[in-house]
Amino acid sequence: MLLSIQTFLKIRTEGAFTLGEIREVAKANLRVATPAQLSARLRLTRPEARGALKRGLAKVERGEDVTRKERRTIDYLGSAFIWNPDFTDTGLHRDLADALVEGGYLLSGERLAWKAVQPFISLCVVALMNGTKLVLNGSNRVTLMAGYDNDDGLIEVKAQLQFEQPGKQIWMPFCLYLTALRAEEHCEPVLLAGPRQWDGHLDVGDDRLMPVT
After folding, report:
1. Other beta carbons less than 10 A from residue 196's beta carbon
2. Tens of pLDDT along 161-178?
């Protein structure tokens, strides 16, 4: 995602990008694009898109003509801004349950009971991530902010990326962690009364997020 944003900003400000940058952005977008996105935009499966991208870029590098499918694939994956969350609570629950079963801490027959504690786990991850500061690539500073500033009102954690451009700073948020929990059902009223992104520390009680006072 960071690579895609940096290249996107370069295209907007400088109007030029190299074949190597297109290749790296296309590979990154191919990793994060969903099967539905690839099907809707390219009418291709992930393996088909990967093959078309590889063949097309090799032809471009050799100065050969590309097919219409290869051109369409390069154009989309090499310049698209695909905003998918890095991970979701659905994937988190599945992976954690698999690890617990493998370690003998959760019996296979207890999967149904496991579902009952999943909202609490989802919210604990949100509370822990909120306000965390990270450094990416040794220079880009990122602040994680919890909230529900999306069309479906789902609780999420976004990373606020900061980029230095000539004469100005650019801030761009992207969703790092998306839950399936609606804020109106899993937040205390005080969190719903203000902005849709929250400052300050959070805690969890009765499967609801609350501010730490």
Report:
1. 13
2. 765 655 665 566 778 899
Residue closest to 155 by CA, chosen among 98, 212, 204: 204
Q: Which residues, at least 6 apart from 16, have a Cβ–Cβ distance to it below 8 Å?
A: 10
Please tell me whether the overall predicted TM-score, pTM, comes out greater than 0.85 for this model. Answer: no
Could you please report the per-residue DSSP string of 82-99?
A: ----SEEHHHHHHHHHHH
Structure tokens at 56: 């097309």
3-state secondary structure of 15: coil
Residues 73 and 2: their CA atoms lie apart, in Å, by 21
The two structure tokens encoding residue 138? 């040794």
Note the pLDDT of residue 22: 83
| Nearest CA among 164, 213, 162 for reference residue 188 | 213
